[in-house]
Amino acid sequence: MNFENEIEKRRTFAIISHPDAGKTTLTEKLLLYSGAIQIAGAVKSNKIKKTAASDFLEIEKQRGISVSTSVLSFEYSDKMINLLDTPGHKDFAEDTYRTLTAVDSVILVIDSVKGVEEQTEKLMGVCRMRNTPVIIFINKMDREGKEPVDLLDEIEQKLSIRVRPMTYPLGKGSDFKGVYNIYKNTFAFYQSNKVKVEENIMLFRGLDDPELDKVFFGLAEKLRYNVELIDGIYEQFNQENYIKGEVAPVFFGSALNNFGVKELLDTFVEIAPPPLERETTAGVVKPHDDTMSGFIFKIHANLDPKHRDRIAFLRICSGRFERNKFYYHVRLEREMKFANPASFMAQAKTLVDAAYPGDVIGLYDSGTFKIGDTLTEGGKFMFKGVPRFSPEIFRLVRNLDPFKSKQLEKGIQYLTDEGLAQLFTQNLGNKKIIGVVGELQFDVLKYRLLHEFGASVDFSPINAYKAFWVKFKSKDDIEDLLRLRSHFLYLDKNNNLVFLADSLYSLHMAQEKNPKAKFDSSIEHNDQTLLLDENI
Ligand code: G4P
Question: What is the number of helices (H) and of strands (E) in the chain?
Fold first, then answer.
């Protein structure tokens, strides 16, 4: 197969949802349809159990296993599909945000009972930053959920995206009869079907078909009314607008019951975009460009303390990646080659000789990669768009063993390179604040610092609300900050200036007093604010 076809064939995406909406169940059903797994339950067993929040060892064991499910590649309908897994636990949400930078589209799962939830909004916010195309799957239609029209309204309002229902349900909960495919004029009859993969589908000649009345009796009128209503309210589906991230096609179904999943997958392969072009510091890179380029969006640690190697996940953006060929590590300005790049097929890891744009491969790494690093065939540019967000919880690092300060320093550098947490320092690095998205990450840090580096730490709470990266043109722009608010000022790992506000009020005050400075709660991994010539 030629290079062009290899690219055209690829569909790289992620499934995202608020925990419990059904992401794992849907992932598993997609794999069942593709034939990548044979039995239900295979994916589920790898999931981080949400109840085990305090049981760190268990979580780590599970995370260890989940290396192989970080990317699930399978073929379906002549397409090569790369499904990038995202952590189920909300405390590892930052990992999910980064994974979203490596996909070309997403499927968003919404629970029909709960509607749009907190994490759904955050994840959609990240998708919107890059105009990622989104398909929405409204799950758990077998349960007594919200009215479909209300759900569609809620999605439009809370997620700020236009929707276009592709199917429409007839009934819900115990009265759920199935879904009508508005574009194919088919009706899929609902049946509880947890293991089999066929769907019972009937073709009609449009909504006027008298067969509808024969099959549904009085309910046919309701279906016609609803579908006409939908057609009146929502614009016809337009693939271009979907690819631009302006409109999200919506499907209804029940992942647990295998219902509506095939329809979703069939439409996905039909409309989802092949690898898209990407922005770099030197302009746009197109997948068809002949030289290889890609970026690291995730680093997964090997949790066996005897082997401190990691797997860095590389998203290939252009050209053809080859095993044992030299590539240029832009940040370190050095050539590297990889003898054992790995690809992932369901749960098996295999050696890859060649990979193409859209593919994600795992590179064994002993500490040379950071999130956001770029590999090229000599080009000196970096990929843009791998964001870092303000953490939500901040704690002061307390070294419990002063004889192990060096180990602690090294451990913190290493683990923050992985993206496990963010580091903010003051007093020439002596005061260290760690910022994370969820409590659980502190447990992970403490455990790994001790087991992998022999450093023993504790974390004490501090009064911090959010981190804001300060962008300024000259020191005069931040004169007030430096003079009166320096106790709030820190440096991040790249020596960017950060204002660690203790409240929204203090941010407003800082903004008011330093009107020329810009305070941002996110920054790109490779971005640099103006550096200060003095220490903080
Ligand atoms: P997540 O990855 O998004 O966190 O969700 P997951 O797939 O684990 O699903 C969360 C719960 O919702 C699971 O139940 C799952 O069985 C259930 N579920 C998923 N899809 C559907 C659906 O279409 N209908 C109904 N009624 N339930 C659904 P659980 O009790 O938490 O886990 P388990 O005991 O089934 O493993």
Answer: 14, 33
